[in-house]
Amino acid sequence: MIALMACLLLLLIGLYAVVAKRNIIRIIIGFSLTEYAINLFFALVGFKKGALPPIVTDLAQTRNFVDPIPQALVLTAIVIGLSTTALMLALAMRVYEKYKTFDITEIRRLKG
Amino acid sequence: MDSRLLPLFVITPMLAAFLIPLLSKLWVRSADLLANLAGAVLLGLSALGSVALLGNSQPLIHRMGGWLPAFGITLVYDPLTAVVVLALNAVGVAALLYSVRYLDHYTGRWKFFTLFMLVLAGLNGVAITGDLFNLFVFMEIAAVASYALVAFGTDCDELEAGFKYMVIGEIGGLSILLAIALIYAKASSLNMAVVSQILAAQGQSPLFWFIIVLLLIGFAVKMAMVPFHAWLPDAHPSAPAPVSALLSGVFIKVLGVYAMARIAFNVFGLSRTSSPEFFNLLLGFGVLSIVAGGLLAYNQKDYKRLLAYSSISQVGYILVGFGIGNYWGVVGALFHILAHALGKGVLFLASGAVEHETGTRDLDKLAGLEKTMPATTWSHIAGSLSLSGVPPAAGFFSKLFLVVGAVSARMYWLAIIAALFSVVTLGYLTKVVNQSFFARPGATPTPAREAPATMVAAMLLLVVLSLLLGLGFKPMLDWFIGPAAQALTNGLDYARLVLGG
What we know:
The structure holds 2 protein chains of 2 kinds. In chain A, 65% of the residues lie in helices and 0% in strands. Chain A is mainly alpha-helical. The radius of gyration of chain A is 19 Å and the shape is elongated. Helices cover 75% and strands 2% of the residues of chain B. Chain B contains 20 helices and 2 strands. In chain B, helix 3 (79-102) runs parallel beside helix 13 (327-358), helix 5 (132-150) runs antiparallel to helix 6 (156-187) and helix 8 runs antiparallel to helix 10 (241-267). The longest helix of chain B is centred in the middle third of the chain and has 32 residues, at 156-187. Chains A and B meet through helix 2 and helix 3 of A and helix 5, helix 6 and helix 9 of B.
């Protein structure tokens, strides 16, 4: 329960940073936090108290394992998150070269 | 077609995306060749698949690696997938052909084609997968490549639009990921067919509706439904024209509308009779999109920005069709997916040809292009007539079916709004014709030449397909769109088709 609350807190901190911050780099950090909150939640979905890691050494023996599927999915989600963070940072660099600022309130040429 | 060929829908563009950077070191033009070849193979595959479905009530199913549906990834090619994949790859082929000469004033040819192939791989993957997490992965492949393509020009506007698009798009993506985690927590499976059976057995709890709301937020962002549309009028005009055609024509529909419809109807088993609230919500947002997009398009000075607002409005029509929720409403929505993909594809390609030749897309600065660019002008006019629903163009039939659906559901006001805003559509698209293509009194014609032959050929290809769709609406309806609409309205029957057999 405490872990789920921590997830929610992390999610809210991340979303706050994405929505309320003006600095592009802080927005990107907010994204990473949000993403990790969701990944953590996903990993917790498969968690069982007192269960063993899902490493099967003896097929005949049935033991109490945690669900391995969410862990595999979270690995994929982390890789996707890596690519989005990398692309966001690359875009941020190019934006800085053009506008000489990280402040999103000053990066406003498109409108209408 | 053998169902073992289904993975080729993803393998072909992925392989091309891998080979293009390698081979273009040897010969620059190999990028064009490989990309166009992959596009043609994809279109051929989708045609083969559609033919295989004719007179066959069983969808094509492939189990990746031979795993059982509850554990592995299942690829499903049913009539709905067939419609989406056909629209997607037809626009893809035209956009690729068009890119060959359009890219002359860009650097980094192979980067463009690699990213384009990744977008196609993602979109095809979303359309054929039968697994929820797999859907998310393909969605992110397509989305990340599209963020890079929007910023491809790397000028101030493109970068700003790309960053904005990326921030908003990723919020949608994360919302979908959270929803998928919750679905897994609830159903302990990710296969759409298995999940739909488990959810149907569990009944509608508050968590069930919370998941739907999260998914709806995610897909609303991807399809640029008003009020989640802020990124689209910046992102679509900033991309290179063939990418705009792909993004506006099919991307928002595959990632947003198709994925939402598939999950709402076939996985969650929602229907107008059992849960009218959801469908009324779609209707409300659909009408809001039609009205807001249509009115905002009217005052645009930028050619491509006008088309982008028009896309928001036309996606509203598709949403309204799903919101009506009966057979004819869904038929209208699916028909409009096809008609709008072809029509908006032509319009964005025409806008690209104008920008390519004159160097501007400001409608006030353009005049009298009809004399110098006749093929572009008439492609634009054909696209406009189709979109605004002038008979016998394709858009007319989609709107006709929508109105039939609205009237048979006794929503007369909806029929009136749909008819009224096709006049508005015609209004803003002919405004472009009057202002920029035909001679305007008091303005000197803009000097221009007709676009290169391959670009014209790409536009004409889409115009011809659009005409065929309009003239051949009866066979299209009987063979493709009708079965696709039934696949959706039959709801949970999807699970029986995928798991049985």
